Amino acid sequence: MGEVIEAGSWVQIYQVILPAGERAPQVPEDTKKVPLELKVKGFLKEDAELGDTVKIKTVTNRILEGELIKVNPPYEHKYGKMIPELLQVGPQIREILREEEV
Amino acid sequence: MAVNDYESVMSRKNEIMKKAVGIDYERFAQGKVGFDYERMMSEVGYKLDEIIKIQKETAVGQTPFIELKNISELARKLAPEGKGARIFLKDEAANPSGSYKARRASVSVYHAKKEGYPGVVAATSGNYGAAVASQAVMRNLESIIVQEVFDSRGVGQPEILEKGRKCEAYGSEVLQLSVGPELFYTFLRVLEDTGYFNASLYTPFGIAGVEPLGYEIVQELQERENRNPDAVIITHAGGGNLTGTARGLLKAGADDTKIVAASVDLSGLHMASDHDFNRKSFTTGHTGFGVPFATWPDRADVPRNAARALRYMDDYVTVKQGEVFYITEALAQIEGMERGPAGNTSLAAAFDLAQEMDEDQIIVVQETEYTGAGKHPMAQLNFAKENGIDVRNGNPDEEEAGKSVIIPEHPSQIKAREVDLEKLKSSYLRKVIEETNVKEINDIDLQFLADEIKKTKAETREILEKEFNLSVVGG
Ligand SMILES: Cc1ncc(COP(=O)(O)O)c(C=O)c1O
């Protein structure tokens, strides 16, 4: 048994919108081989566990159903490591600006 | 109960759209191939002075207009004697949601409110989502944004993840989808389910909303320098940025100003490919949208796209991803302005074009966008490296979209590469002929097509007859 997630928690659910075999005809081959998937966030309607099919109420008060995949879904995009390939830009152009006309 | 499988929903498309935008496009039909574009713009949209008033209510527009003295000086150092135009920049990042897209959303959201819609929906992975969400908050409407975000591994494009976060920050419901054009199906279902307004990017509302941007540029430059810009360079994807800005420039009387489109060169990447999706470092302002939308604007989510870039474009240039990252870094390092990369596409091109123009000429870069985690050269280049892209310093001419991102070794390597506009114009005409199946056209059609490709009737007629064997009767 997994951990119980309480009703009212802020969660993310997952749905398959179109299975792999049912993609639109104009879609390229690699995309046809995979399903069209949806993720959306909202408040959990009833106690549930990860992986359960649940209902959520979104911020526009719509009720949507799907597989419960995350609680307090994080934002994980970031800046990341310094990019050495960009480090030269500042010093280089400042140097050009300092150069006397030749 | 409505049946909601893919085919059934798609077959209800016209009906759903009519309700959700409230525009009867058939009213503007004209001749065999076209429609009355100007009548559509004037009857559906709002007038410039009304728009300026609407935008004032929500703090949109009147953004700073700045001379980039150091970047101009740098270009001059690299240019031949007497060359190196002054580069000015419209700091559109100062709009409430951080990009010019606030202008585009403002009129749609105003209109939705006025017409009594309870909320607005937009299908967009870009800055437009945040713009709609922010404008909706200001007018007390609900908003739903439908985004294409992640590939089949569940990996999201950092820039789009950031835009999704921003929408949620404004209290928007964000539907995050994997790669594929069937996003449109989900979008239609949301419209049907909610009865919200379709804040499409491509209605006359959206395009007219951008006109004040062009208008402000002329006003500011007249005030400061007593002249019109020699060229305005516009980051181009779906064509609304260019169309709206150009119309505003014309309304301000700048009819000699050259209109230059600029896109990031992503040729070779397929926009609907799950594999290619996370191999690009730009999610807008690129050729993957710029070329197809220029050559066939009516691929949009409304029957008649109000963004028709070929009507206004004098030149079209491309730049490489690595060049835009370089100039983004330069804008921070020598101008003290840290802005998002996609919005700097036209700046990269302007940097090269300025070197071909005379010293006393003026080139205007008409926008910037906000930056932040995800939506930043560092974020994009780290992401590129994680996805197997070869990121290195070198000659950007060798950059291959989806395989490499090459940061120039020297600013003199930044190049605006000319796109063959004649080819695009022909390809537009071919598409019209295919879609409408016409065998001959009349004078009204010829005038429409000439306007569509910014040519005279005689020139257009010659192309139609020579390249397509299409005869024009009368005229
Ligand atoms: C900052 C920014 N610049 C330029 C563009 C291009 O605008 P359009 O799609 O109207 O050509 C976009 C839109 O995607 C954008 O967000």
Through-space gap between termini of chain A: 77 Å
Percent of residues in beta strands of chain B: 5-15%
The value of Rg of chain B in angstroms is: 22 Å
Instruction: Note the run of SSEs of chain A as H and E.
Output: EHEEEHH
Bound small molecules, by name, code or SMILES, are:
pyridoxal-5'-phosphate
> What percent of residues of chain B adopt helix (DSSP H or I)?
40-55%
- How many angstroms does the end-to-end distance of chain B come to? 52 Å
From the structure above, extract its key features:
heterodimer; A: 102 residues; alpha+beta; SH3 type barrels; 4-stranded antiparallel beta barrel; 3 helices; 4 strands; 18% helix; elongated; B: 475 residues; alpha/beta; Rossmann fold; 7-stranded mixed β-sheet; 4-stranded parallel β-sheet; 19 helices; 17 strands; 15% strand; globular; binds pyridoxal-5'-phosphate
What can you see in these coordinates?
The complex is a heterodimer of chains A (102) and B (475). Chain A is of the alpha+beta class and 102 residues long. In chain A, strand 2 (36-44) and strand 3 (53-57) form a beta hairpin. The N and C termini of chain A lie far apart (77 Å). Chain A is built from 3 helices and 4 strands, in the order E-H-E-E-E-H-H. Chain A has helices at residues 29-32, 84-87, 89-98; strands spanning 10-18, 36-44, 53-57, 63-71. The longest helix of chain A has 10 residues, at 89-98. Chain A has a single domain (1-74), classed as SH3 type barrels. Among the domains of chain B are: 54-98 and 207-418, Rossmann fold, CATH 3.40.50; 421-473. The longest helix of chain B has 16 residues, at 421-436. Chain B is globular. The N and C termini of chain B lie far apart (52 Å). The interface between A and B is large, with 45 and 62 residues. The complex binds pyridoxal-5'-phosphate. The site of pyridoxal-5'-phosphate has 19 residues of chain B, from helix 12.
